[in-house]
Write a structure and sequence with these properties.
Helix content is 27%, strand content 16%. It has 194 residues and is of the alpha/beta class. It has a single domain (9-183), classed as Hexapeptide repeat proteins (UDP N-Acetylglucosamine Acyltransferase, domain 1).
Length: 194
């Protein structure tokens, strides 16, 4: 497993807030003052904030505090994110309900829609790398998609809505279907790669 860079709470939150602002307002400059606080409390950013705080306290070996933030996300937003899953800066969750994130790690600038499951194929309390996915940088996971098992989703890949991914997806590819297959970009006939 390639090493994960050290977790920097402020860096991640600044990047997350910038992405949320850019997506919501189509401008790069985050708001200041009162409007900034309104943005922080939005249902698109507050779950990310809770996720970051949960992971921060997990890294500091304060698992009970981490679980409080994780549980708050579950009850308020219907999202379950493993406190030990390192997620790169720039995470965007347009909608959260029904989302379960139990990946080994997620790269920077990931967008994860509602109803997504990133986790093991079977019950895995040991949180083993061989049974959980690794999500690369800039990945978009569509609504209802399931990415299961020890697969790797390459940087810039897109997972279509309701796809069930059980095999690795190369960087920049689009995976669709049940079970998911990679479609050739730019082909009108939708032929899949072998």
């Amino acid at each position: 497993m390639e090493s994960t860079p050290p977790f920097r709470l402020r860096l991640c939150l600044a990047a997350d807030l910038a992405v949320a602002h850019r997506m919501a307002h189509a401008t790069a400059a985050p708001r200041r003052g009162w409007r900034l606080w309104i943005g922080v409390l939005s249902p698109r950013f507050f779950p990310v904030l809770n996720c970051r705080l949960a992971h921060f306290f997990f890294v500091k070996r304060l698992s009970v505090v981490a679980k409080i933030f994780s549980t708050l996300n579950f009850f308020l937003y219907g999202i379950e994110i493993a406190i030990r899953c390192p997620i790169g800066p720039g995470l965007f969750l347009p909608h959260t309900h029904g989302t379960v994130i139990g990946a080994i790690r997620i790269g920077a600038n990931a967008t994860i829609y509602q109803g997504v499951t990133l986790g093991a194929r079977e019950v895995d309390f040991a949180y083993g790398e061989e049974s959980r996915p690794i999500i690369g940088e800039g990945v978009i996971v569509g609504s209802g998609a399931k990415v299961l098992g020890g697969v790797t989703i390459g940087a810039g890949a897109r997972i279509g809505a309701n796809a069930v991914v059980v095999k690795s997806v190369p960087a920049g590819a689009l995976a669709v279907g049940v079970p998911a297959h990679v479609v050739v970009p730019g082909r009108e006939d939708g032929d899949a790669l072998a």
